[in-house]
Amino acid sequence: MEVNPELLFQGKIDAEVKIEPRDWMPPAYRKTLIRQISQHAHSEIVGMLPEGNWITRAPSLRRKAALLAKVQDEAGHGLYLYAACETLGVDRETLLNELHSGKAKYSSIFNYPTLTWADMGAIGWLVDGAAIMNQVPLCRASYGPYARAMVRVCKEESFHQRQGYEIMMTLTKGTEAQKRMAQDALDRWWWPSLMMFGPSDTDSPNSAQSMKWKIKRFSNDELRQRFVDYTVPQAEFIGLRVPDADLRWNEERQHYDFGAIDWEEFQQVLSGNGPCNRERLQARVDAHEQGAWVREAATAYAQKHQRQTV
Ligand code: BYC
Question: Residue 255 is inside which H or E element, if any?
Fold first, then answer.
């Protein structure tokens, strides 16, 4: 009797058996993974840009060294993720072309500007904090290479989150101007950080299937709620006010209630009309073109080395 491969596949998923590159998988599973992992990889390398903007202006050598290390980590995350994506049969050049032509998405959050040093604190604390909330469950994603890449990424993200929170804590203990700078950064980054989790569950076309395949373990709204519950007390601890008049603890739900997200702004950013979309894409295209000689030299070296070893 012939067994339906889709049923066998779902059976493996249900039994928590990891799917590996050479295993049979439904074409739609492969397509979903390529979409999510490549968007994730693009987010990591575009995510270097807003912070890269402050490396030369960090206020001390210690801050500069930490920021430099963080931005380098993000390049590394991009590399792990592109490598994981390549195991699905798509090459890196194709993925990068999709990013550079504007076809592929990357996280909405990186289309906002970094105006002051406090933005380095807010990004580490909130953006990396949101990333951890979303990515820790991805360490248990059903696709082996993605799950394993996420383990390393999450370890580094947790250092990033702490360095950001420590910047905010230092600023809130400083002068009045420094406290205002920290509050202003929280005011600008709070709502875009909540949008990072993606559309609400009722408007998320991919969630149900991705959860059935155990690529995602929790819905966008579940993770967003967790982030709010976790982060609000951290803001209170350093004397900052979350910019949401509707935010309050709900004793019955044992969660914070929070205000409505501006989904129109989210859609605008996704369709290329955020404050920095054009600038970010242009910076990536320029970096790729200026790096062409490095790729050529690396390929020539690899080919020469290969000739010598055969
Ligand atoms: N921005 O059905 P949905 C980082 C898209 S890097 C842009 O819920 P899904 C860091 C979504 O792709 C952070 N697009 O989708 C780096 C879909 O579009 P398509 C990046 C978004 O996939 C440097 C459509 O909206 N993290 O942390 O089930 C420095 C419908 O959404 C966004 C990851 O990539 C968004 N915010 O769920 C510091 C994590 N949200 O493709 C930090 C991995 C949604 O159907 N990705 N869209 O046209 C995921 O966990 C999931 O892909 C998402 C979305 C939760 C993001």
Answer: strand 255-257
Q: Ligand 1 pocket, 78 CB below 6 A?
A: no
Contact 87, 145 (CB under 8 A): yes
The rounded distance, in Å, linking the Cα atoms of 137 and 91 is 26
Angstrom distance (rounded) from CA 254 to CA 257: 9
Residues in the chain: 310
Angle between the 277-290 and 292-309 helix axes, to the nearest 10 degrees?
A: 40
Cβ count within 10 A of residue 133 = 24
Distance 68 CA to ligand 1 centre (A): 25
What is the enclosing helix (H) or strand (E) of 248? strand 248-250
Q: Tens of pLDDT along 99-122?
A: 999 999 999 999 999 999 999 999
CA 67 to CA 163: how far, in whole Å? 9
With CA atoms as reference, report the closest residue to 124 among 176, 66, 79. Answer: 66
pLDDT tens by residue, 191-211: 999 999 999 999 999 999 999
Q: Is 207 in the pocket of ligand 1 (CB under 6 A)?
A: yes
143 three-state secondary structure: strand
pLDDT in tens, 267-305: 999 999 999 999 999 999 999 999 999 999 999 998 888
Q: Which residue has its alpha carbon closest to ligand 1 atom 53?
A: 198
What pLDDT does residue 1 have? 66
Q: How far apart are CA 234 and CA 36, in angstroms?
A: 30
pTM of the model: 0.95
> Residue 228's closest CA among 203, 186, 253, 257?
257
Paired residues of 257 in beta bridges: 248
